[in-house]
Amino acid sequence: VPPVGPDDPVAPIAPVEPVGPDAPALPVGPIAPVPPVGPVGPLAPVAPVEPVGPEEPGS
């Protein structure tokens, strides 16, 4: 690879568009409708929670 000196042409750099409050916002399309939530089915049985406290053995 030949050394790049100050006289060699430099590839043009594409201008970077500034991003900020003044930048145009991307168009937002219509929001998809949320499907209605039907009746809640039977809940799964919850395992009983053992009480945890100072009387717990091994503490």
Automatic annotation (TrEMBL):
Residues 30-39 have a biased composition (Pro residues). This is Uncharacterized protein. It comes from the Bacteria. The lineage of its organism: Bacteria, Candidatus Roizmaniibacteriota. Residues 1-59 are annotated as: Disordered. Residues 7-29, 40-59 have a biased composition (Low complexity).
